């Protein structure tokens, strides 16, 4: 019985070990290390002296693709086992064969290009995103037989160099940017609270905020509403019937202007659509002494 249990335990341990091996093999490395590993693999798999040409590497950006091509060329030339065919004529050949300069080239198209360049083997590949990491996949195909001579997939870590090539931020850079954005948001909120609180005082907040258009509007309509209120109260003192109506209009104008002055700092350089809507106000009042008294203003 104990012997049977020991055998089962041994089998379980071996199975666990087998499951852990792929995880260890898939450890992500830098882009330079991945390219160097690929170059060493190509040199060991292809016969010494084989003429190879790197046809196409697809990547999220042109910079990333060019970097992989240049680094792979450098590593192969430095190794010296293979003869690397110059890529200078690839662009002209692609154009002649009506191939797109950007995007992935099919194996058949790559073989045609390789044959025209006198290469014996072609190298194609891709750098693609896989979760939080990237994968560099490189393949070498025989020009004559179409047989796959080499195939390699390598997990690549998103470090500072690769993030610059693919236009993405590393985890640390993203965290720093998030903190900076949050701090900027807090500072922006605090400043808008301050400007909004003092803006009813003749648009001072908007002027400090360098929103001169908003400041002038608040200043103008506060003065205008004060004049209308004064006009109405003067007529009331004189016993005229329209005094209360005019004074009421002035009060409404003053309240609307104060409300606008409080809201304006929150709209400046933030929400142009809402700001434009706030800047278009049309108010009409009833007839006064059989004269259509209409107050209409547009603050573009």
- Approximately how much beta-strand content do the residues carry? 15-25%
For the biggest sheet, the summary is: 5 strands, mixed
Overall mean pLDDT: 78
Shape descriptor: rod-shaped
For the biggest β-sheet, the strand order reads 2-1-3-4-5
Share in helix? 55-70%
Summarize the structure.
The protein has 300 residues and is of the alpha/beta class. It contains eleven helices and seven strands. The strands form two sheets. Strands 2-1-3-4-5 form a five-stranded mixed beta sheet, sandwiched between helices. A two-stranded antiparallel sheet has the order 6-7.
Helix/strand layout:
Elements: H1 2-25, H2 31-45, E1 51-58, H3 62-79, E2 83-84, H4 90-96, H5 107-116, E3 121-130, E4 133-142, E5 148-156, H6 160-166, H7 171-198, H8 204-208, H9 212-237, H10 243-267, H11 272-278, E6 280-284, E7 294-298
Parallel strand pairs: 1-2, 1-3
Antiparallel strand pairs: 3-4, 4-5, 6-7
């Amino acid at each position: 019985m104990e012997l049977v249990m020991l055998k089962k335990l041994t089998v379980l341990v071996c199975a666990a070990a087998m499951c852990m091996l792929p995880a260890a093999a898939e450890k992500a490395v830098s882009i330079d290390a991945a390219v160097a590993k690929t170059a060493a693999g190509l040199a060991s798999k292809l016969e010494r002296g084989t003429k190879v040409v790197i046809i196409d590497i697809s990547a999220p950006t042109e910079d990333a693709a060019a970097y992989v091509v240049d680094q792979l060329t450098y590593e192969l030339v430095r190794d010296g086992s293979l003869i690397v065919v110059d890529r200078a004529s690839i662009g002209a050949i692609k154009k002649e064969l009506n191939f797109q300069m950007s995007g992935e080239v099919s194996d058949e198209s790559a073989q045609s290009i390789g044959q025209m360049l006198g290469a014996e083997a072609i190298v194609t590949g891709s750098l693609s995103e896989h979760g939080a990491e990237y994968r560099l996949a490189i393949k070498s195909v025989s020009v004559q037989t179409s047989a796959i001579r080499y195939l390699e997939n390598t997990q690549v870590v998103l470090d500072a160099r690769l993030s610059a090539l693919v236009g993405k931020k590393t985890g640390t850079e993203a965290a720093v940017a998030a903190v900076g954005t949050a701090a900027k948001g807090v500072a922006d909120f605090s400043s808008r609270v301050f400007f909004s609180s003092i803006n009813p005082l003749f648009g001072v907040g908007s002027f400090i905020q360098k929103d001169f258009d908003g400041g002038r509007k608040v200043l103008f309509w506060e003065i205008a509403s004060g004049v209308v209120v004064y006009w109405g109260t003067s007529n009331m003192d004189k016993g005229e019937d329209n005094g209360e109506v005019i004074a009421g209009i002035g009060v409404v104008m003053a309240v609307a202007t104060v409300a606008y002055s409080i809201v304006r700092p929150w709209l400046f350089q933030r929400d142009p659509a809402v700001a434009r809507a706030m800047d278009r106000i049309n108010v009409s009042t009833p007839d006064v002494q059989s004269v259509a008294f209409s107050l209409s203003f547009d603050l573009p």
